[in-house]
UniProtKB/TrEMBL annotation:
Residues 186-266 form the PDZ domain. PROSITE patterns: PDZ. It comes from the Bacteria. Keywords: Hydrolase, Protease. This is Lon protease. One of its GO terms (molecular function) is ATP binding. It comes from Corynebacterium choanae. Gene3D superfamilies: 2.30.42.10, 3.30.230.10. SMART domains: PDZ.
Length: 418
């Protein structure tokens, strides 16, 4: 029976068979051929509405969750012969149709070494600047999410894994499709890449430019400023970041004529343009320019991220560390295998994420020695983990680099505790 799921297949992940074999040691997971062919699957680092952000791997019809206490209850409440019959069937005679449970299951997902390759390409590819050799690993962690389960499949998951159940509408909110959720996750992931680059370049003291990603149709900037144009100055003041542009625009008044100096992306010409500011009535009549901006490396440098089928903001911290390691002389990792998670702001602030207990387990299963946790997630990070991997709290990119350096020296670390 073929079950619908997100479109990116397991076969596009590095060492798919090996990854699934590793997961299978703790989780009930089909073999690589089945996951990639019959059922499908997609690795997903997702950010979902509310507090439920998770680096995630989706598998169709494959999920489960249950702690040992619930497992005991299930075994006590369900006769063994009936349970075995249900596990072997996708329908119940009384109903005559496939039953789908309104829950999804979360568990540890695969990890990706951001210093390495994915699908034949460097996960982080830097051009226009000298790149320093790296060693060790900086692992981006994920959560495995399964949904669209039949009732027998859900029972099997409950009895054979330590995953956790969440209501399906937490993963796919009412009124949205799985594809729409995936698109949102991918946009979040793209934003996390830009923020990671900005934070790393600021740490390294490298120059950045502010570039127009797109303009809002019908806004003052639309048709005057083009995607790809660099913003040089606003109202006569030089700018070096999207934040600076936003602050200068907000210092104006709606309806005011604004002068912006741009460097055209197609000709390189620098010129002044003018347009009338609109009004953002959703934010207290704030002046609105109608530009979406991103920070990009200056002087022809480029940082490209090549990890398809992934979404959400929680890889930001690890991405920033990988960029720093590639551009700063010497080895950041010291040859150690380091993992972590957390959002990254352009100023280097690390933010909380969801699903961290599963990410910690995924990192440990992959052999990580040190795990970097956002400070706000610290207690949750070790709530289900008592293994040998060291789990430390970090609040910024500087904290993370300092923790890695201290770990290499064998110094005392600010570890997470329950």
């Amino acid at each position: 029976m073929t079950l619908p799921v997100f479109p990116v297949c397991c076969q596009r992940t590095p060492d798919c068979a090996g990854t699934l074999r590793r997961l299978a040691r703790r989780r009930f997971v089909h073999n690589c051929l089945l996951a990639a062919g019959k059922h499908g699957g997609c690795w997903q680092d997702e950010c979902l509405p509310g507090e439920h952000d998770a680096s995630t791997v989706f598998h169709s019809g494959m999920v489960v969750v249950v702690n040992r206490r619930l497992r005991t209850l299930f075994f006590g409440a369900i006769p063994v012969m009936v349970s075995a019959a249900l596990v072997g069937a996708d329908t119940l005679p009384v109903f005559g149709d496939s039953l789908r449970v309104p829950y999804a299951a979360e568990g540890p997902g695969p990890v990706f070494n951001t210093l390495g390759d994915y699908d034949g390409e460097k996960i982080i590819d830097i051009s226009g600047l000298p790149v320093d050799p790296t060693d060790g690993a900086l692992d981006m962690t994920t959560v495995s999410v399964a949904h669209n389960m039949t009732l027998p499949q859900a029972f099997t998951r409950m009895l054979t894994t330590d995953d956790t159940f969440v209501p399906l509408d937490v993963i796919i909110p009412p009124g949205q499709t799985a594809e729409e959720v995936q698109e949102t996750n991918e946009r979040e992931f793209s934003s996390s890449e830009s923020a990671a680059t900005m934070a790393a370049f600021r740490h390294l003291g490298l120059p950045l430019t502010t570039v127009v990603e797109k303009t809002v149709p019908g806004s003052g900037a639309s048709g005057v400023i083009n995607p790809g144009d660099e913003i040089v100055a606003v109202a006569g003041q030089q700018v070096t970041s999207p934040t600076a542009v936003t602050e200068l625009v907000r210092a104006q008044q709606p309806g005011q004529l604004l002068t912006v100096t741009v460097k055209r992306h197609d000709t390189g010409a620098v010129e002044d343009v003018q347009f009338t500011l609109g009004k953002d009535t959703n934010h207290g009549d704030t002046p609105l320019a109608g530009m979406m901006l991103v920070a990009e490396p200056a002087d022809g440098a480029r940082v490209n991220y090549n990890l398809s089928g992934v979404g959400g903001p929680s890889a930001g911290l690890i991405f920033s560390l990988a960029v720093v390691d590639k551009l700063e002389p010497g080895s950041l990792t010291g040859g150690h295998k380091i993992a972590g998670t957390g959002t990254m702001s352009p100023d280097g602030t690390v933010g909380p994420i969801g699903g961290i207990a599963h990410k910690v387990q995924a990192a440990s299963d992959a052999g990580a020695e040190l795990f970097l946790s956002p400070a706000e997630n610290c207690a949750e990070a070790v709530s289900r983990y008592d293994g040998p991997m060291t789990v430390v709290r970090v609040s910024s990119l500087e904290d993370a680099i300092g923790a890695i350096d201290a770990f290499k020296r064998g110094d005392t670390l600010d570890t997470c505790s329950r």
